[in-house]
Amino acid sequence: MTTAQQHPLEKIMDSRIAIIDGAMGTTIRTYGMTESDIRGERFKDSKKDLLNNGDIFSLTQPKMICDIHHRFLEAGADIIETNTFGATSITQSEFFIDDPREHGGRKDPAFYQKIIEDPFLSNLAWEINEQSARQCREWADRVGTATGRQRFVAGAIGPLTVSLSNSPDADDAGFRVVTFDQVKTAYAQQVRALIAGGSDLLLVETIFDSLNAKAALVAIREVFDEDGKELPVMISAAVGRGGETLISAQTTEAFWIAVQHVKPLSVGLNCSLGPDLMYPFLEELSEKADVAVSCYPNAGLPNPLSETGFDLGPQDMARYLSDFARGGLINIAGGCCGNTPEHITAIAKALEGMPPRQIVSRV
Q: Lesser CB count within 10 Å: N end or C end of the chain?
């Protein structure tokens, strides 16, 4: 999906490892926000708890979200992600629509068709994506101008709260709660809003179900074709202990084979179990892929007693990412869950001057 002309980010990766930001959710946690903070005046009467719906903060606490973007940029990030991990009508329905299972019903394609057609959810999803992209755009441009170093906005497209690959019904293996076309429709709306808000790139990330990712990638292609505007696409999967793409259970190599036709700007691994277990799978992907490779792992495993909720501190992450760089495995580096601006500062400093992975084109 990249164009023939070299993208400015590609030029950066020719000479050094590019830095992507850290975890929005983890960093929000450090601000001590409450349920009333996320609701604000606009959502004060919502029936469900919203505090875990971090994307809403882009609408109710924009100053905080912009401060976080600013801090990640000051930490050295070349790429900042929009606060839109769950900004589709499908995911937002978890916070605003009654669960039919609580009343003896079930979630099924008929239920999700109503979600797709719901004007409130559609408008909300559009607004979150567009506004978050505009917030990123403003700060990427401000810091880029002030430092003389271009920064990039990646429209973050998360994996959803439903799976196209697996049935939730143990007695009906063929049952799916949602259809491919419904997922594609939700993603297409998100993509259009991210582009309207000024994103430079589209990042399909934390992929645990390759079929969900396929729906996102088809949606992106269709939007490009219909609207006549094309952006570079980044793809990043989450893997388990065996290097499989979680629910869809593809190996790292199989996952790359499934998405390589997209001709992305980059492919990589993020989230998962932390950097210590990621090396062999990142190594395999680096050997197979003929595009840039990204890596932004969790800061280890969750630990509720830790200040960030994860075990590894800034210097720990810097050490692991340095190992990846010394192994010639990465072109883009950063952090996922548990990684604050302080983590990104340490990673950026540790990787400064280290050569990027050499991209070998395979004809």
A: C
